[in-house]
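Could you please consider the sequence and fold following this short note?
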Amino acid sequence: MPLKKIFRSYIYGRIILKNKKMRTEQERKKLYKISDFADKSLLIVDDDNPLRDRLARAMEKKGFQVIQAENVDKGINLAKSSPPAFAVVDLRLTDGSGLEVVKEIRKNKQNSRVVMLTGYGNIPTAVAAVKAGAIDYIPKPADADDVESALLASPESKAIPPENPMSADRVKWEHIHRVFELCNRNVSETARRLKMHRRTLQRILSKRSPK
């Protein structure tokens, strides 16, 4: 066989192999589309009214049919009367834990896809949410794209609760530094987003990460 033909066969073989690997990776990380679901109902439970309204509008634009609740009591009532296909639940609410809402949703609709929203100090507790039936948890602040990706991820990509989650102090430190980087290392903007006093933030940023 001529060298040119051998070389061409080799290149084609490499391309096919690469495409197969890419397809396998894409299938592993498959995201469904909201149009794939007959029931597009989404319950958002959060006591931060501006954040909840903003997220609700963004998710409606993405094709979800959104209902809202600002506390545990209303969230549980909606989970009973209109069990949603999807839910986004804040872990800490003014009248209790969002875990109670998750349990009620799962009791009334076992295949509901629930994502927990959690503040930086509550990720170890959010692990319990995954064990209670949530498919994922996202630290605040979370945008609509992050929420959509978590809600529409394939079941194989469900979050696995770590056996030894980080301490709350370490989670807090890492989250603060993440937001700090997202704000282009602007201390004032970071403090505003985290609702933290500027001097307190500066003290935290100057310290080494806790274990």
Q: What stands out?
A: The two ends are 62 Å apart (CA to CA). Strands lie at 41-45, 65-69, 86-90, 92-93, 96-97, 113-118, 136-139. The domain at 34-157 is CATH 3.40.50.2300 (Rossmann fold). The longest strand covers residues 113-118.
